[in-house]
Amino acid sequence: MTLFFKTFEKDNTQTYLFYPGENNRTPFKRRSITVLMDNCTESNVRALMSAWDIETLSMEYQLIFCFPVPPQGGWAAAPYETCKQIFDTCQIGMGKPDDKPLPRNAFGIPTTEAMLATWHPMNDTKYVVGIGDGATFALTLAVRTPANIAGVLAEGGHPSLTDASESAMPVCLVHGDPETEAYFRRVNGEHTVCQTAGFTVYAGARNPLEKTMVPLHKNRIDAGLLRSVCETLFLPARRPNTSPSGDIEPSMCLSTTGFEYFIHDFRLGDGKKHTWFTYVPRRAAKPDTGWPLVMFYHGGSDNPAEAAEMSKLHELGEQEGFITVYPWGTDCCGWNSAMDPAQENDADFCNRLIDYMLEHYPVDRERVYVTGFSNGAAMAQTVALLHPEKIAGLFHIDSNWPGKYGGYQAVTEKDITPFRLGFERKQAYDYLMPVWYTYGSREISFPVFRDSTQQNQYDLWKRYNHIPVTPTPARGDENPTGCGAEGETIEVIRPTDRHPEHWYQVNRFYTADAAHLNLYNFVIMHDKGHDIAQMDAALGWQFIRKFRRKADGSLEICQE
User: Fold this and answer.
1) Angstrom distance (rounded) from CA 537 to CA 525
2) Predicted TM-score (pTM) of this structure
3) Which one in 97, 301, 433, 466 has a CA-CA gap of 20 to 30 Å to 72?
4) Are residues 217 and 291 in the same domain?
């Protein structure tokens, strides 16, 4: 088995890395487990990997394993800040075995070639295992800075609870002390208690993934216990960046989803290989007019499985009755949403895939919708602008486009190729496009000021839909709500029982005509970072599902 040793030049952090196989880029998701041990040498790491059967586990569940070398004095004696710096450096750098900096483009984003060279472990599925003093540090991380840690397995360990965040954390305590167990049982919302598969399990009432597990008969971690914890505690849980400390959400089990997989497939007829996942509801009866179709475009450097797990749109489609498609960008990395002629023609790919779905699946042609996240949200807008005759609605999430990423740049439709082409199409027929757009208040362009990507985007769509454009505050001006230009009506909603602290501010904008149609919505999900919250996609679907694109290009609004 190939074990890599990596030294980070910036702070001399050292770690051992083990990857699941040789192929670093696939359409499936990679998770990671960081193992904190006291004497981290190559011989000790290899011995532990053999004893815990880590190679088998890694290959079976596509897990990246990271073994950081502890600081001088060890995990317990060194200052917490020193240990945390080592941990953070490893989390950021575990995506590739060398320390060469990633080449970046003019916007400061890694190039496609650079991203294709990485393994891309996702931040929402990073787990920690600690033994010895490493267990104390692992539990201290869980107590003090739980964001981006989706679960902890600790053998022993005595964390200080003085600076505890009081945030939930899926945890398994092997030979733990009573005070630590009581803390996690409290923050995980102990409600149900059961004994199963060799563990006592204390599960939260509101969210059963927030649980504390205690082995009944084992005082040491071995291969069997690690596998049990992976399968029952780690893999079912993820921690997206949808609150300051992250939220515990369910993961997706690919083996039970029922996806159709089209991987490196040539059937679209453009001579290029393409990848996409399709989900058709399992309902026995199909509607007379066919199923609605929702196309979801992944974020930059993501893939179809990651997009499916983030959005859970296929699960919503099973409930609501629509087909879901998760395509992978032609370069197996990102989307050429700006239509750069030097890059892959993703606009053509997306159009061909929609046509393929219309031809080969029972799709209602009047009810085709597009959505996506981040770079994929930009691609969804591009598809809607280029093919408004096919698209009945757009409900994208967290698009820092168009304009300067993280900065300020005034743009018009003439500066942005998809918008320019979209406005040109309106000269032949005045298409309208219903839009529900969700953005997080911990995102890079919030609060929203003039010339930010958010102002550029919502004003272009308002103009497209004949909605009055009102001024957005400039930097330094008063911006009471942070959302820039407020809606004609504003609604606050709290749509989820699992996370009652989640709330959305919906700014609704209406056409300046007698119909007074609500065709643009700027929705702020408060305390969300760059991620997809539990209800983001569902709220968007609830809005756009009432719209139909008629054969003559007009919109029909169905009363519900």
Assistant:
1) 12
2) 0.96
3) 97
4) no
Number of folded domains that form the chain:
2
Q: Are strands 518-525 and 435-440 parallel, antiparallel or unpaired?
A: parallel
Q: Is residue 195 part of a domain?
A: yes
Length of the chain: 560
246, part of any domain: no
Same domain, residue pair 234 and 361: no
> In the chain, pLDDT over 90 holds for what percent of residues?
87
Asked if residue 305 and residue 230 are part of one domain, the reply reads no
Domain CATH for 530: 3.40.50.1820
Half-sphere exposure of residue 241: CA atoms within 13 angstroms, side-chain side: 13
Last residue of a domain, one of 239, 271, 294: 239
Q: What CATH number is associated with residue 219?
A: 3.40.50
Among residues 465, 392, 451, the alpha carbon closest in space to that of 422 is found at 465
Q: Are 10 and 100 in contact (CB under 8 A)?
A: no
Coil, strand or helix at 282 = coil
My answer on whether 63 and 115 are in the same domain is: yes
Q: Which of 212, 216, 190, 186 is nearest to 201 (CA)?
A: 212
Q: Give the closest residue to 26 by CA, choosing from 150, 127, 118, 124.
A: 118
Do 234 and 284 share a domain, yes or no? Answer: no
CB 417 within 8 A of CB 338: yes
Distances (CA, A) of 234 to 29, 126, 172, 422, 509: 14, 9, 10, 45, 43
Q: Which residues contact residue 288 at a Cβ distance below 8 angstroms, ignoring those fewer than 6 apart? A: none
Return the amino acid letter for 155: E
Whether residue 315 is found in the same domain as residue 442:
yes
Q: Which of 381, 370, 366 is nearest to 537 (CA)?
A: 370
179-213 as b/e: b if 16+ CB within 10 A:
ebbebbbebbbbeeeeeeeebebbbbeebbbbbbb
Helix (H) / strand (E) element for 93: namely helix 80-93
Determine the structural domain holding residue 275 and report its residue range. Answer: 261-557
CA nearest neighbour of 171 among 144, 198, 148, 139 = 139
**CA count, 13 A, side-chain hemisphere, 224:** 8
- Please check whether residues 382 and 528 belong to one and the same domain: yes
407-442 pLDDT per residue, tens: 999 999 999 999 999 999 999 999 999 999 999 999
CA dihedral 211, 216, 219, 225 (to 10 degrees): -70
Task: Give residue for tokens 């993501």.
Answer: 302
Per-residue pLDDT of 462-480, as tens digits, reads 999 999 999 999 999 999 8
Q: Where does 131-222 have alpha helices with state H?
A: 133-144, 178-187
| Residue 1 tokens, joined | 């088995």
pLDDT in tens, 170-187: 999 999 999 999 999 999
> What type of residue is 225?
L
Q: Which of 208, 239, 270 is the last residue of a domain?
A: 239
Nearest partner of 243 among 339, 156, 172, 168, judged by Cα: 168
Residue 110: inside a domain: yes
Q: Is 256 domain-assigned?
A: no
